[in-house]
Amino acid sequence: MASIAVFIALIGPVCLALATLTFGASRNSTEGQVGRALLGGGVVYMMLTWPIAGIMVMLWLRRARSNAEALNPDFRHRFARGWVIAGWIVPIANLFVPPLMVADVLRASSAVGTGSRVVVAWWTTWLTAHLTLVIGFVAVNNVEYPRGASTLGHFLLLTLALFAVAAVTLRSITMTVARSQDGR
């Protein structure tokens, strides 16, 4: 369910990327109005769906952590159970606690020594996508039109690619954990 919510939330960055196809069109043209609607709608959609997707991921992690503890009680997790939720919310900690918790759940759930490369790939692309999105919107305000629109367009396309990779790697993680836990 968590990875499905993440893929649904990915529609927001898709709208932002589609808006780049209209950059350079006159504001009053139909194409320009569609672009503005996609850009604004994508931002609003992200504001509405990302918190829901985040809650779904936290709930998945809490459930997966509980299952991992029951299946492998000898495994020593790096953080107490309360950090499953707090790790996403507490500033600074939210930059490093979530991937460490996911890596712990992955290792505790797997009969085979599962590496954390996929977790590093997921978290790195997730953080980089957010940073890229912010840089793109800051850049558009600091560069004159039309170069600013072109710069934003490049950042939005890169952001979409990064979010897509993050969503796919998270899906891989959730499926690996589910298969490992169901197999025990």
From TrEMBL:
Signal peptide: none annotated. This is DUF4328 domain-containing protein. Residues 41-173 form the DUF4328 domain. The chain crosses the membrane at residues 34-61, 82-101, 121-140, 152-174. It comes from the Bacteria. Pfam families: DUF4328 (PF14219). InterPro entries: DUF4328. The keyword RNA-binding does not apply. Keywords: Membrane, Transmembrane, Transmembrane helix. It comes from Nocardia otitidiscaviarum.
